[in-house]
Amino acid sequence: MKLAELRKKGYQALVDSLGVVGMLRFLQQLEVGYGDYTTERQQWLDEVTLTDFQSYVKQKPQ
Question: Pick from 17, 23, 41, 56: most CB atoms within 10 A?
Fold first, then answer.
């Protein structure tokens, strides 16, 4: 399946499921984003200790 055909079928599936207005509202929520997720993720993961994680898990409701 070519990309153009895939895109057309995707739009049609959204219209069928959400209606035209719903499809447009959904598509407006999509954004390209910015930054380097991998680098940023590594930075915040380096800051979390095993003890921090265990404390967090214990606080979560079951």
Answer: 23
CA distance 26 to 4: 20
7-55 pLDDT, tens digit per residue, is: 999 999 999 999 999 999 999 988 777 888 889 888 888 888 889 888 9
| DSSP of 3-52 | HHHHHHHHHHHHHHHHHHHHHHHHHHH-----S-HHHHHHHHHHH--HHH
| pTM, two decimal places | 0.49
Give the residue carrying structure tokens 């719903």.
22
Question: Residue 10 carries which side chain, given as an amino acid letter?
Answer: G
